[in-house]
Write a structure and sequence with these properties.
The complex is a heterodimer.
Chain A: E1 3-14, E2 17-28, E3 32-36, H1 43-50, E4 58-63, E5 66-67, H2 73-79, E6 81-84, H3 96-106, H4 113-126, H5 142-155, E7 160-164, H6 172-187, E8 191-195, H7 199-205, E9 208-213, E10 216-221, H8 223-227, H9 230-237, H10 240-248
Parallel strand pairs in A: 3-8, 3-9, 6-7, 7-8
Antiparallel strand pairs in A: 1-2, 1-4, 4-5, 9-10
Chain B: H1 11-29, H2 32-57, H3 66-83, H4 87-93, H5 95-109, H6 115-134, E1 144-145, H7 157-183, H8 186-196, H9 198-203, H10 208-234, E2 236-237, H11 239-242, H12 245-258, H13 264-282, H14 290-304, H15 308-316, H16 318-321
Antiparallel strand pairs in B: 1-2
Helix pairs in contact in B: 1-2, 1-7, 2-7, 2-10, 2-12, 2-13, 3-4, 3-5, 3-10, 4-10, 5-10, 7-10, 8-10, 12-13, 12-15
The chains are: A alpha/beta, B mainly alpha.
Bound molecules: adenosine-5'-triphosphate and magnesium ion (MG).
Adenosine-5'-triphosphate (ATP) binds next to strand 2 and helix 1 of chain A.
Chain lengths: ~250, ~325
């Protein structure tokens, strides 16, 4: 295995606020990496740096060995990085099927329209949205929109999937279903970098966990290593409930 | 199993056939006043259908879209008058200035979003009009006019008018077909994605700059061809009639009236709007209020029927739903 994605000293600042501070870590090809940290730690900003929405002030981001800093987002998407946003962005007036077709047609695989529709239909089946295919995306409920967001990213046929809090707002049954979906996406050869607050899910799925706090990387390791790391426990003390959950989830 | 094909009905052939049959009537009956009326209606269909590509599909309101009609008209007119080029050749070459302006100026102003883009298109229209008013090779404020003998090579003024009419009808049909094809192509999906959420479009792999410029260019081609036919038939072109802001805004009203972002909407909107205007100006009591009535109508649509006549028809008559796109 080799690193599909490597961050090297990545720093992202908004004016005086350093949201991501000198962060380095690797994501192995074919693995699932969990990116965790308290609210405002800079997790989504890491995603924004990786897919070219924000340009880092310093550092490099290597995708398959190639520095992608400064590349426009649409090129990064076509190289094979797809993203499910934390705040869902459905194309509200388009049908659910068309939303997912966009992913298939303009992402890494760049399929033609007919092939894109077929791919999209398959992904909708996989994510349990098939019966919604012909309704406008704006008419979905929040949980369905989350799944749509993921479906659109998966339909691109990415090499790396950036999943930002896809499980948030789902009920336990839906979370279980999604864990299965993530595992099958990984088994299909897609490398996953996922941001999650649901510790149980992260610890269960991830091969590696990366912990951010105030923009700084405070721990990297297997789920067991990270959970035992005093710095991580410390970081979560500001949020006792999160700390509790973290401690409760022995692997 | 998912039904992937939403369009099992031959919508495009039916729509084209209806327009073609209506357009053929004055040719068969040889009625010149009806031909004039339908010429104008086909022109409006073309303008509305074209502006719908950038405004309806892509979400960029182009207030000054009539600039392409004027540029095509001037380009072709000058070629015919100064160089004696045949109408059909001049009309096609007249597209060049329109396409150049759409591509070059479009690349700059399509970065702007929302109201800023709309205002920029007004600026383009007014600047072009001011330029042509002072541009002596194009006759300045007086414009250009044909020596009547120019129609001799077409077999006289009447056959020239018929040629212009047939050309106009073909342009309208081509514009409708292009609108349909764009709507149902991968390219159209990119346009609608940009309309819905441009920032999401970028992350999904769409290059918005190139895509929008392509849409703007396509939406400029047919008005330019229509301008060539219109001024060829009239024999005179001047900045006021070539770059008429009222007509520009009217074509947007037609799109809204018929149904923004649909294929049939601009066609229906143009036909209904023009029919209504014809009705109003022949009624002495209402004639002076025609623009007021058009304005009120627009308000009603915007407030109560945002999906336009097509939306109303689709909701009211489920049977036509699959026939109307
Ligand atoms: N566009 C922006 N402009 C200014 N500040 C920003 C911007 N985006 C993020 N920030 C700030 O950067 C910090 C990190 O934000 P980020 O969204 O990356 O956090 P996060 O770890 O994803 O948090 P959450 O778990 O709440 O989603 C926060 O303080 C946030 O307010
Ligand atoms: Mg976040």
């Amino acid at each position: 295995m080799s690193a599909l994605l490597a961050l090297r000293g990545v720093t992202v600042a908004f004016g005086g606020l350093v949201a991501v501070d000198d962060v380095s870590f690797d994501v192995e090809e074919g693995s699932i990496t969990g990116l965790i940290g308290p609210n405002g730690a800079g997790k989504s900003t890491v995603f924004n740096a990786v897919n070219g929405v924000y340009r880092p002030r310093a550092g490099s981001i290597l995708f398959d060995g190639r520095d992608i800093v400064g590349m426009p987002s649409q090129r990064i998407a076509r190289l094979g990085i797809a993203r499910a946003h934390q705040v869902v962005r459905p194309l509200t007036d388009l049908t659910v099927l068309d939303n997912v077709t966009v992913g298939a047609c303009f992402g890494r695989d760049g399929l033609g329209l007919a092939a894109g529709r077929r791919r999209a239909a398959g992904v909708l089946e996989q994510l349990g949205l098939a019966d919604r295919a012909s309704q406008p995306a704006g008419s979905l409920n929040v949980a369905q929109k989350k799944r749509l967001e993921l479906a659109r990213a998966v339909a691109a046929g990415p090499r790396l999937l950036l999943a930002d809090e896809v499980l948030a707002g789902l009920n336990p049954h839906e979370v279980d279903e999604m864990l299965g979906v993530f595992a099958s996406i990984r088994d299909a050869g897609v490398t996953i970098l996922m941001i999650e607050h649901l510790m149980q899910a992260v610890m269960h799925l991830s091969d590696q966990v990366v912990v951010l706090d105030y923009g700084r990387l405070i721990a990297v390791g297997t789920p067991a290593e990270v959970q035992a790391d005093p710095a991580v426990v410390e970081a979560y003390l500001g949020d006792p409930r999160a700390a509790e959950r973290l401690m409760a989830d022995e692997p | 199993m998912l039904r992937l094909r939403g369009r099992s009905r031959p919508f495009l052939p039916v729509l084209l056939l209806i327009v073609a049959v209506v357009a053929a009537v004055p040719l068969v009956t040889g009625n010149p006043s009806m031909r004039e009326e339908l010429f104008f209606m086909l022109l409006l269909v073309t303008l509305a259908t074209s502006v719908n590509v950038i405004t309806g599909y892509t979400g960029y309101v182009s207030f000054g879209h009539i600039v392409f009609f004027g540029l095509g008209g001037y380009g072709a007119f000058w070629l015919m008058q100064a160089l004696g080029v045949h109408f059909l050749v001049a009309a096609v070459l007249g597209v060049i200035p329109a396409v150049l302006v759409a591509a070059v100026v479009g690349a700059a102003v399509l970065r702007l979003r929302g109201a800023y883009f709309a205002l920029a298109t007004l600026g383009i229209l007014e600047a072009t009009k001011a330029f042509m008013t002072n541009f002596d090779p194009a006759g300045g404020a007086v414009g250009l006019s044909f020596n009547f003998s120019i129609y001799a090579q077409y077999g006289g003024a009447k056959s020239a008018a018929e040629l212009a009419y047939v050309f106009m009808a073909l342009v309208a049909l081509a514009a409708i077909a292009a609108s349909y094809l764009v709507r149902h192509a991968k390219f159209g999906l990119a346009l609608m994605t940009i309309r819905e959420d441009q920032d999401a479009a970028v992350v999904l792999g769409i290059d918005p700059a190139r895509t929008k410029v392509a849409a703007f260019v396509i939406s400029a081609v047919f008005p330019a061809l229509a301008g060539a036919a219109f001024f060829f038939k009239n024999g005179i072109i001047e900045p006021g009639s070539a770059f008429d802001l009222t007509r520009s805004i009217e074509s947007l009203v037609m799109v809204v009236l018929g149904g923004v972002g649909t294929v049939a909407g601009p066609v229906i909107g143009a036909a209904v709007y023009e029919w209504l205007r014809g009705f109003l100006i022949t009624s002495p009591a209402l004639a002076s209020f025609q623009l007021t009535i058009a304005g009120v109508l627009l308000l009603v649509v915007v407030l109560f029927a945002t999906s336009g006549l097509v939306g109303v028809l689709r909701a009211r008559f489920p049977a036509v739903r699959e026939w109307l796109e």
